[in-house]
Amino acid sequence: MIDHLIDPSTEQLIDPFGRTVDYLRVSVTDRCDFRCAYCMSEDMSFLPKSEVLSLEELERLCRTFIDLGVRKLRITGGEPLVRRNVLWLFQQLGRHLDTGALDELTLTTNGSQLSRHAADLYAAGVRRINVSLDTLNPDKFLAITRWGKFDRVMAGIEAAQQAGLAVKINAVALKNFNEDELDGMLAWCGERGLDITLIEAMPMGDVGQNRADQHLSLAEVRTILERNWTLRDNDYQTGGPARYVTVAETGRRLGFITPLSHNFCEACNRVRLTCTGTLFMCLGQDDAADLRAPLRASADDEVLRKAIHEAIARKPKGHDFIIDRDRTNPAVARHMSVTGG
Ligand code: SAM
Ligand code: SF4
Question: Ligand 2: does its nearest atom lie under 6 Å from the Cβ of 110?
Answer without folding.
Answer: yes
